[in-house]
Amino acid sequence: MAAAGVASPRFDAESLAAHLLGVPRGQLVLHPRIDRATGDVLGALVGRRAAREPLQHLLGTAVLGPVEVAVGPGVFTPRPETEMLLEWGLAALQDVASPLVVDLCTGSGALALAIASVRPDAAVHAVEVDPDALVWLRRNVDAHGGRVVVHAADVRAPDLLPDLAGRVDLVVCNPPYVPDATPVPPEVRAGDPAVAVFGGHDGLAIFPAVAARAVALLRPGGAFAVEHDDTQAESVPALLRARPELVDVAEHADLNGRPRYATAHRR
Length: 267
Ligand SMILES: C[S@@+](CC[C@H](N)C(=O)[O-])C[C@H]1O[C@@H](n2cnc3c(N)ncnc32)[C@H](O)[C@@H]1O
What we know:
Elements: H1 9-21, H2 36-50, H3 55-59, E1 61-64, E2 67-70, H4 83-92, E3 100-104, H5 110-118, E4 123-128, H6 131-143, E5 148-152, E6 168-173, H7 186-191, H8 194-197, H9 207-217, E7 218-227, H10 235-241, E8 246-253, E9 259-266
Parallel strand pairs: 3-4, 3-6, 4-5, 6-7
Antiparallel strand pairs: 1-2, 7-9, 8-9
Helix pairs in contact: 1-2
This protein binds S-adenosylmethionine.
S-adenosylmethionine binds at residues 76, 78, 82, 105-108, 110-111, 127-130, 133, 154-156, 174-176, 195-196, 206.
């Protein structure tokens, strides 16, 4: 069977052209002609995309909610699938003044920076273990005025962030959750670090530790949201319900209507 091609070739080519010309994609129609040199560069970029380099690596950036972060080899590219989790987290903070927030498995820092950008009164902490991702994370945090506190740490460490224990208003997490044997598109295989994508044979390897850290960090009534694979709509909520400290466990869909994240509150 022939390998599937790029999912959205026209959108991707237009995005690359807009990036090169420094205009929004919607305004490309105002630039019906480009010079030969620009055409050559665009042709090369389109060729790299056709060879399945991730679009965001060619653009150098990815967007989550209100923020743009730098991405490239060594860090997970934020996905639109995470937008609804971000919205849920922001809504959970609506009536909380000067909230304390922790983003576990932060990667580029997109979720943490998006929350910090919408809530300038928030104190936001971001945890990441991968040294390569930490380089991108620190670069992004610096580019956004140092609004997020970076912690180079493993979420499986039982004593993670002891100073914040029992005080946090919101814990968010988009962990590695793809079952190891799942075939993934070339962009994911070559573009996203394996440590960011795969979560053991059932994809659930890191979830017990993430739930335990959320329980330890959250204040009574604090909110927790964790992203998962669309095959884990029952297993992840079940894992959260198994923790007696968590209540209001609920399952949610992403922008495409697929099961994508579970939420709970600290009893
Ligand atoms: C799916 S990516 C999500 C990145 C980011 N939150 C986002 O939504 O774009 C998962 C991230 O978790 C990190 N990670 C994996 N295992 C970890 C661990 N044990 N402790 C801390 N971070 C971990 C990976 O390096 C990766 O950056």
